[in-house]
Amino acid sequence: MNKILITGGAGFIGSHVVREMVTKYPDTQIINIDALTYAGNLENLKDIENFNNYQFIKADITDAKQILDIFHEHKPDGVIHLAAESHVDRSITNPLDFVMTNVIGTVNLLNAAKEIWKDNYQGKRFHHVSTDEVYGTLGEEGFFTEETSYDPHSPYSASKASSDHFVRAYHDTYGLPIVITNCSNNYGPNHFPEKLIPLCIHNVLNNKPLPIYGNGKYTRDWLFVIDHAKAIDLVFHEGKNGSSYNVGGFNEWQNIDLVRELCKQMDEKLGNPVGTAEQLITYVTDRPGHDLRYAIDATKINRELGWKPSVTFEEGLSLTIDWFLNNSEWLNNVTSGDYQQYYQKQYK
Ligand code: NAD
Ligand code: DAU
């Protein structure tokens, strides 16, 4: 492909996808469109911002005209769509923001792609990046496969499920060439500290409580973000048209065990006595509608495309903590201002 348009490329996962594409495909133009909400940060892309095959455009996917104009002007062959409101807790406070960006924004992109590709879908592809949360919750056993029925519970997952349905509907109704990936929890460098792992790293560094929702036995399947970026590259280029692929880390952790592992690693790295960080663990009011357990069966992407995670969780977590320790300016910048207000309100 000559030109790939990536949405949400200034965010956590998007910035790793942009870097992967810009460095791996020097003959392909990568256009990053992002509204730079509280979660978007061009600092995430400092190392590649001057590459010849990279361009940034500040744009809001809820603005249908602006999006169509960009598609007409740049005529991308491929779209990798990551722009979203992504935090479950914020979706509980402001569901409509999630409908606007995740549902309406996705439909605006689908309309723009359909419009400029209408004469010939050959060599075109719309890749929608979604989440395992669309499947709802598991009990103590079992895994989500690509055949699991959708059963979202939070406004965030309901909006992502809706966007997945629209993407499939555009394939079935108009023949738009699409692929979808549904991934488990990511972690790694550049993760915004509203999410569990970077929030706990930030709080240990500031000697603040580590808030554990409910009884801490909720379970997530964690994947290092660069492994997700590589899975997206693979599915975008080699995935079967009209198909969806689950992506996961084969790596389940109860929240409380994960936070204990994080505390252990941080004590070692900071040279503190064993048990120092754990003393900060504080059980707090549960998240409403909290899904008990997510676990991905990633057999399909492994069997069809040969993808598997490249780092163990302990390695990935160590790399992640090191990144935060070495990037204190980044962390200070994103935790000043609005973040403080958000934090007070969420954890009052
Ligand atoms: P993020 O919140 O870190 O980044 C989202 C990006 O989208 C930001 O750069 C933001 O500025 C941009 N954005 C938001 N609204 C926009 C709008 N209206 N127009 C243009 N840009 C807008 O999110 P993330 O964690 O990097 O997630 C990226 C995608 O991956 C999302 O679609 C999310 O649902 C999905 N996903 C995330 C995870 C995870 O663990 N973080 C796991 C699976 C799937
Ligand atoms: O599963 C994929 C999803 O993972 C993505 O689609 C979402 O965009 C992403 O935010 C993430 O959602 P979660 O809600 O699972 O991630 P979060 O880091 O917010 O929470 C992880 C677990 O930790 C969850 O069980 C809630 C709990 N938690 C979270 C926070 C922020 C706490 O116990 N305390 C906290 O302060």
What do you see in this structure?
By secondary structure, the protein is α/β, with parallel strands linked by helices. It has a domain at 3-191 and 223-250 and 294-312: NAD(P)-binding Rossmann-like Domain (Rossmann fold, 3-Layer(aba) Sandwich), CATH 3.40.50. It has 12 helices and 12 strands. The strands form 3 sheets. The protein has a 7-stranded parallel sheet with strand order 3-2-1-4-5-6-10, with helices on both faces. Strand 1, helix 1 and strand 2 form a beta-alpha-beta unit. The longest helix is centred in the first third of the chain and has 23 residues, at 95-117. The mean pLDDT is 97. The structure holds nicotinamide-adenine-dinucleotide and 2'deoxy-thymidine-5'-diphospho-alpha-D-glucose. The site of 2'deoxy-thymidine-5'-diphospho-alpha-D-glucose has 19 residues, from helix 6 and strand 8. 2'deoxy-thymidine-5'-diphospho-alpha-D-glucose (DAU) binds at residues 86-88, 131-133, 184-185, 195-196, 199, 211-213, 218, 220, 255, 287, 294.
